[in-house]
């Protein structure tokens, strides 16, 4: 294999890897956030149909008191449905 063929093969592999990474990142950005029902299914550790502050993760944890409109210390399905949607980061 001569030098030119070797460099062409390396460039082809690098280009392919970059294309796969870009496609994967774009696919993840296009995903819809989970619904309120899915959030409860994912995080409701004690399966009581509502989320305590100890059970929640991510942006919901930061806004727990804003989402808990009846101030009972739990997030119900209705409260999650009415919660403000998280703001997305800037597109690059």
TrEMBL record:
Keywords in alphabetical order: Signal
Region annotation (Disordered) ranges: 24-92
Claim: Nucleotide-binding is one of the keywords in the record: no
Signal peptide: 1-25
InterPro entries named among the record's database cross-references: EF-hand-dom_pair (IPR011992), EF_Hand_1_Ca_BS (IPR018247), EF_hand_dom (IPR002048)
Positions with biased composition (Basic and acidic residues): 47-69
Residue span, EF-hand domain: 55-90
Protein name: EF-hand domain-containing protein
Natural source organism: Zobellia amurskyensis
GO molecular function: calcium ion binding
